[in-house]
Amino acid sequence: MIPVICLLLVSDKVFGNVPTTEFFSYGHGAKDTILHPNDDGSSPVQNISVVFEFFSEHRKQLFVNTNGLISFRNSIRTYTPEPFPKIGVRIVLAPFWADIDTRMCGSTCSIWYRESTELVDLSKATIEIRTYFPVMKHFNAKWTYIVTWYNVPFYGAHGSEFNKRNTFQAILITDSKSAFVIYNYNKIEWIASKKIPAQVGFNIGDDIHFYSVEGSRTSQIINLPNLSNVGYPGKFVFRVDLRDIRPAPTPGDPGQCFLKAADIVVVVDMSLSIDINALKNLLSDVISELPINDMECQIAVQSFSTSAKTELRFRDQKTKTEILAHIDKMNIANGVSNLEDALSSTT
Ligand SMILES: *[C@@H]1O[C@H](CO)[C@@H](O)[C@H](O)[C@H]1NC(C)=O
Ligand SMILES: *[C@@H]1O[C@H](CO)[C@@H](O)[C@H](O)[C@H]1NC(C)=O
């Protein structure tokens, strides 16, 4: 039923935003902690109760930063948004990196945060991930971290500018095996304090694992509540624990699988002339023991010798039965006579 509901919502919403009623709950009622009113400030270090996998960064701490960032190594005061990819130092989630100032807005604005394993939040996270990643149909969220920038103004806003406010939310989600981030945008009425508009996305600092929402640091970023990477205006959803950055699959295309970074790699040195039947039995034995389910492609087979290197990966969803069937066919399939060809015939 969930995908059907999703499609209905998508067709209803051609443009718009995410209503705050569809945000994860926030505020005093949700037992949030409030980030004391400040300019360029941050929360104290937040020790979290899980290891959050953010690509190669496996973090047990985070910081909520006033200027629209969640960081993992240090708090960040920098108020001028820097372009992604930013190499090295900035390991951040950037729902809206810009010069936010909450000193003057009293109770009309706030930045809220909490870790939550409350059932209501886990259920909502589970439904959203299953909706936007249909292949994750057995996903069950175990942990969430929810940060809400509510009605925040910008540094240096004078007069009527002070009435321009932004409301957005970032949610970190994990089931301890995979990790996701959701950004929800309700209202974006300003994009810059001075010259450079907000940078939106995330950045790990290796020049590979980053995402920069198109229009970042330009006037186009005002359209954020109309933009999406999942076909739902005002919403971005990312899986952030894989080797590659994968966008959420388009609705109706649940066939792709997710290859975790080297979950299982079988390396075969072909210079040792391993008998194909012995290899087949070995692989079957190993795979029979693996917790392969229909969510992920968890196996890579790599073979090499000084003269040849081949790699086999299951790029589509495969059940354990299918993988074993592939291996079973390896030695004689297509008249293959050597290991290298046998492996490549199985991809
Ligand atoms: C957070 O964890 C560190 C050690 O990892 C510890 O030194 C520190 O006291 C903890 N902080 C809080 C607020 O619990
Ligand atoms: C979203 O798109 C609609 C239709 O093009 C437009 O009227 C509206 O102003 C846009 N909203 C924002 C926040 O860009």
UniProtKB/TrEMBL annotation:
Pfam families: NIDO, VWA. Residues 263-347 form the VWFA domain. It comes from the Eukaryota. The keyword Signal applies. Residues 1-16 form the signal peptide. It comes from Mytilus edulis. Keywords: Signal. One of its GO terms (biological process) is cell-matrix adhesion. Transmembrane segments: none annotated. This is Alpha-tectorin. Residues 95-243 form the NIDO domain.
